[in-house]
Amino acid sequence: MARAAKKVSRGKRAAPQKHRTARRPPLVRGYGSEPGFPISLAMRAGDFVFTSAQGDHGFNPADVVYDKDGLVISDGNSLPPRSMADETRATLRNLEASLKEAGCTLADVVDASVWLRDPRDFAEMNRAYGEFFTGNQPTRSIFRIDFMFDCRVEIKVTAYKPLKAAKRKTPRR
Amino acid sequence: MARAAKKVSRGKRAAPQKHRTARRPPLVRGYGSEPGFPISLAMRAGDFVFTSAQGDHGFNPADVVYDKDGLVISDGNSLPPRSMADETRATLRNLEASLKEAGCTLADVVDASVWLRDPRDFAEMNRAYGEFFTGNQPTRSIFRIDFMFDCRVEIKVTAYKPLKAAKRKTPRR
Amino acid sequence: MARAAKKVSRGKRAAPQKHRTARRPPLVRGYGSEPGFPISLAMRAGDFVFTSAQGDHGFNPADVVYDKDGLVISDGNSLPPRSMADETRATLRNLEASLKEAGCTLADVVDASVWLRDPRDFAEMNRAYGEFFTGNQPTRSIFRIDFMFDCRVEIKVTAYKPLKAAKRKTPRR
Question: Residue C114 belongs to what H/E stretch?
C-alpha cells in the first residue's frame, strides 16, 4: 500500500501524470493521485478547483509510528532538517504543481487553509506564505493541529478559474 | 433541547423530511435539520451542495459529559461497539442521505474533509472511505481532532451538481 | 509587524477600508486586510464570497506568549472578560462587516465552520449563533482546536451571492 510514495518527497517527484485533454475540459475532473489514497490532488468542479491538503512530502500509512496517545512520532521518511519557511515553500510548490495540472496557478487561489503543529511557527510560516501571494490575497484560516504523518505544516487551497479561461493543455495546431 | 435526537442513530433515522419541490429548484436551499441545532444538514448554493460535518449518530448537547480539561467523555448515547470501518461507512451513508435530499449522490462529491480522534485509525478509515469513491476521487483533508460529542470520525463533503442536472424530487405527470 | 492591529478589537474598528467600486464588480476581488497578514478578510470568487476565519479581535504575532508546549498563553491584548455568547456575537458581527464590504450579509451565508477552544462552550455558542441565522440555516462544522492567539471561538463562512444581485456600493445618480 502506497509503497511507491515511500521516502519520496513530493517536492522532488518526477514529471506529473500526463492527461490527454480534450479541447473543452470537463466540468468535473480529478488531477493527480497518491498510491494507496483514494483521492485526487486537485479537482475541478465548474469554475472552481479544489486541492487536497498537502504537506512537503508523501507518506505510507503502514510506516507511521505512533506514541501511546496515538500521536505520530515518525512516518518512515528521513528528510533533511529544514526550516519552517522552507517547509512552507515546498508545500506551496506542491500545491502549485497540483493546480498546474488542473490549469491554474497560485494567482488563482481565493481561499486557503493552513494547519500548523506548533503555533510558535506562525510568524515564520506567515512570512514565507506571503512570498507566494503578492497579488490578490486569498482569505485564510490557520489552526494548530495534529497531523496524520510527520509534518509541521499542511495547506489546502481553493482556486477560481472559469473554464473558458483555463489554459489548454494540448497545443493547438 | 434536541431531545428527539437522543439515542437515535442517524443511520437508522426515519424517512427523511419531505419537501415539495417546484419544477425548478431554488438557487439556495437548506435540506434536513437536527432538533436544537440552527443548521441544515445539506445546503444547495448555485451549482454546489455543501453538507454539515456528520458522524454516525446525533447527540444532545445537554447530555454530554466532559473531563476536567473539557474533552468529551460521553454524549449520553449507548451505541454498540463498532469498528472504525463501520463507523466510517455509517457516516458516509448519513452524508449520502443528506445529499440525496438535495438531489445529489456521493458520486457528485468533489471535496471532502475528514476528522479522526486517533491517527491510528487512519488506515482502516482510508480503506472503508475508498469503497465509496471508486469513480471520481474527491480531494481530501484529514486531521486529528477533538469532537463535540463521543465520536471517532466526522466527515463533511462538497458536491457539484448543476441545477439543470438535479433530479426532480416529484414525479411529473 | 502588525503593530496597528495591537489591542484593537476588530469589533470596534474604525470605518472599513473604502473601495471605489465600478458598476460591475470584478469576478475575483479581496476585501479588507489586516496589517502584517498577507490575507483578505473576504474574497469574492464568481457567485461565492469566502471569509477568513475570524475571532472577536485582532492580534500581533510578535506579542504572543507561548507555554512550553507551544500553546498560546496570551496575545498581548487586554480585553475585558466576556461571555462565550458575547464573544460569539462579536465574532459574527466582524464576519458581517467583512461580508458587507463584499456586498453580502449573513443571510447569504450557506456554509460555516466554527472552532472552539473548549467543548464545554458548545451549548452557549450554539444559542448565540442561532440568533444570527433565523432564515436559511447554513451547513456547519464545529471542532475543538488550539488557536494562534488568545481566543475561545473563531468562525469562517462561505456566502452565495450572484454578482448581478450584489448591492451597488456607489449610489446611482
Answer: strand C109-116
Distances (CA, A) of B143 to A32, A137, B100, C144, C149: 21, 25, 27, 12, 20
Q: Which residues of C touch A158 (CB under 8 A)?
A: 45, 50
Residue C170's pLDDT band, with cuts at 50, 70 and 90, is: very low
CB B5 within 8 A of CB B33: no
A142 touches chain C (CB under 8 A): yes
Three-state DSSP class for residue C70: coil
Question: What are the φ and ψ backbone dihedral angles of C84, each rounded to 5 degrees?
Answer: -60, -35
The β-bridge partners of A54 are A155
- Is there a contact between A40 and B138 if contact means CB atoms under 8 Å apart? yes
Residue A159 DSSP class: E
Interface test with C, best of A27, A129, A141 (most C CBs within 10 A): A141
Please tell me whether the interface predicted TM-score (ipTM) of this complex is above 0.85: no
The per-residue pLDDT for range A104-132, each reduced to its tens digit, is: 999 999 999 999 999 999 999 999 999 99
User: How far is CA C23 from each of CA C99, C121, C166, C170, rounded to the nearest angstrom?
Assistant: 18, 44, 10, 8
Of C43, C45, C70, the CB nearest to A119: C70
Residue entry with cell 463498532: B82
As a residue count, chain A comes to 173
Residue of B nearest to A27 (CA): B160
CB-CB neighbours of C84 under 10 Å: 21
